[in-house]
Design a protein that fits this description.
Number of domains: 2
Strand content: 15-25%
Number of strands: 5
Shape: elongated
Largest sheet: 5 strands, antiparallel
Radius of gyration: 31 Å
Order of helices and strands: HHHHEEEEEH
Structural class: alpha+beta
Number of helices: 5
Length: 239
């Protein structure tokens, strides 16, 4: 009678092992399911954040485009009035109004080569006011300047310019994404971006390794003239 008893005991032991294995597998499946749910939620949250950033960038781009188109329309309207033979020459006032609009947009926009772009405005405005630049020539140069500003909104570029870092002026590498974001790399290898500070701008340096790697990857890609791809970057529009 010993053999049947041993067989029954063995079968019982095997059944218990199978139950334990099933329980273990079920626990693992539940854990994986929970992890997958958390990953999906994190991905949805990240996509919502990226969509918000994309919307902000589109709004700023449209604003820049509208400002440039408005200036061109105003110049065209005044030029038509001059061609129609109005007794008063409207061109000087039209050009000065257009230059004022350009200057306002440059001061309010991204701090990319700010002094040079403002000087380009002054190089037309000052001689026009002094009477040493013909109104027609001033209008042509203003039109070209507006076109140059509009072109900046459509281009990404790697450049160098002087930036303020903690009150010190340093010559840094910059990557400009249209006219909505400016990322910087200081001579000592630190990374950051231009961010709003009241009515002006400041350079915000990143301290985290992840953010530094993200901006570094952008610099590498742009330096290799890689124009298409997905980049995860610190958001300069936050706040």
């Amino acid at each position: 009678m010993m053999l049947p008893l041993l067989l029954v005991s063995g079968l019982a032991f095997g059944a218990d092992s199978a139950v334990e294995e099933l329980a273990r597998l079920r626990t693992e499946i539940e854990a994986l399911s929970h992890d997958l749910t958390m990953e999906e939620e994190a991905l949805r949250s990240r996509l919502r954040s990226l969509e918000a950033v994309r919307t902000d960038l589109e709004v700023q781009t449209r604003a820049e485009d509208l400002a440039a188109r408005t200036l061109r329309d105003e110049l065209a309207a005044f030029a038509e009035a001059a061609d129609a033979g109005d007794t008063e020459d409207p061109v000087p006032e039209a050009v000065l109004a257009g230059l004022a609009l350009l200057e306002e947009e440059i001061r309010r926009g991204l701090p990319y080569r700010l002094d040079e772009r403002l000087q380009a405005v002054a190089d037309i405005r000052d001689p026009l006011r002094a009477g040493t630049l013909a109104p027609a020539r001033a209008a042509s140069r203003t039109w070209q300047l507006a076109e140059d500003e509009l072109r900046l909104t459509r281009e990404n570029a790697l450049d160098r310019q002087t930036i303020d870092v903690g009150g010190a002026e340093v010559l840094a590498d910059v990557v400009r994404l249209g006219m909505v974001a400016l990322y910087v790399r200081t001579p000592d290898g630190r990374y950051g971006y231009a961010s709003r500070a009241g009515e002006g701008w400041t350079t915000t340096l990143v301290s985290g390794r992840t953010e530094s790697q993200q901006i570094g990857a952008l610099f590498d890609a742009v330096s290799k003239q890689i124009r298409v791809g997905f980049f995860e970057l610190p958001n300069p529009l936050e706040g």
